[in-house]
Structure formats: C-alpha cells, structure tokens
Design a protein that fits this description.
By secondary structure, the protein is α/β, with parallel strands linked by helices. It has helices at about 15-25, 35-40, 45-55, 55-75, 95-110, 135-140, 155-160, 175-180, 205-210, 230-240, and strands at about 85-90, 115-125, 150, 185, 200, 220. The chain has ten helices and six strands; from the N terminus they run H-H-H-H-E-H-E-H-E-H-H-E-E-H-E-H. The protein has a six-stranded mixed beta sheet.
Amino acid sequence: MAMDDSDGDGRLNERQRDAIDVLASHNAYAAQSKWKTLRELPRKERWPFFVQHFLLATSAILVALIVVISLAVSFLTKPPTPLLAVQGIGMSRYASSLDRLRDGFLRDQGIEDHRLVQVDGTLSIGGDGYADDSAKVMTMVTAGQINMMAAGRTMFATLDHRGYISKPADVLTAAQLRAVAGALVDARGHAVADPAHAAGLDLSKSAVWRSAGLPSDAILGFSNVQSGKVYPQRFVAYLRFS
C-alpha cells in the first residue's frame, strides 16, 4: 500500500510544497535573448544550447554567404564577351600565325584587350575519337561563340553541309560584297560571280592572310553572327581581299 505523504487533513506537506515551488519557480533565462543566455550558461552547457537554438540558422547563413561570394568572384573574374571569334578548323599547327593575325587586327582596330578578339585553330572535324570536335563545334556555333570559320575546301564544304555557314550576302553590305567580288566562292571553293550563290571568301585572295603564313587553300565563312555584323565586316576589310 502506497504511503500518503500529505498531512492528515489533506493539506500538502512541506516536501510536496517545496517540489511545487521548484517547478513553478521563475526561469531566469526566459525573458532574455538566446545570445545572452548562451554567454551566461556554464561552459559545458553552451555547445548543446548552441546546437539546439543556433546551428541550423547559422549553417543556412554560411551556405548563403558562400553562394553570394562564389557568384561575386565568378562575375568579377569572368572574361569579357568577345567582339569577334574566328575559328580555324584543322589549323592547330598554325597557332603562331593565327596569333599574329589576331594581334594585327587588334592593332588595326585600336583594341587593347586581346580577350575581345579570339582567333583559334585547335578544333577539327571529320576525325575519329578525340580528333573529332564536331559536337563542340556544333555547340559553339549554336551558342554564337563562333562568328567566322576558316577551313580547307573539303572541311569547309562539310561545315556548309551541316548548316554552320551563313552566306556572305547575309552579313556584308552591297558595297562590301562588290569590294570582295573577286574572292567570292561556293562551298567547294569554286569562284562565283553572283553574291547570292557565294558561301565564303577565298583566302588565297587575302594579302594579310598570306603574309601571316596561313594556308592558301582555305575558305573563310561567316557563322552564327549573334553579337552583330560590325566586327565580322571589319575583319573582312582588314584581310584586304583582291
């Protein structure tokens, strides 16, 4: 039989009253901020309290801060969008000549930041495995990252067949077409008199191209000129076709 700790008249005894007083006592930390409570807690109780009240919110703030910093760094270090991107196909061995061609155009246009003009020859098509950059070329053309393409006659015909080449008449003005009339060729490199039938420009007719030591059997064509026609037009003028 359980013992009755209450007084005989049904009133709580002293021990019961003390227990109730403890349960009903005022929490010294209830009315103050959690940060202040954290500072006032005994050292061994601080970490559990921090985990319970602050860890999730602190982690979320740190993640958000990392994302913001990453975006800011990415924005500040992102290279500028090129004014012109010329891609030579299968011309990796002419890297130094293409650099000279780019540097000459930069000087001609008074452009100080070399990142604004890209002239590259590392991509190739029609090879096997790692030697075939067809997928990359398609992606870059679609994204407007290639404005002009130079390739030998066979590769140029392939580029045109794949739909990567725009007609000179779609980019050059009537006066500019007349200035390069002697260099207009179809996709296979045959000379044409009607600009409407032209697919590219015969680079053997360019004094600047030849003087840079670049292959004379190459054809220059326009690609996805999303950033505007001005610099592709200026590049054609710089090449000095005859």
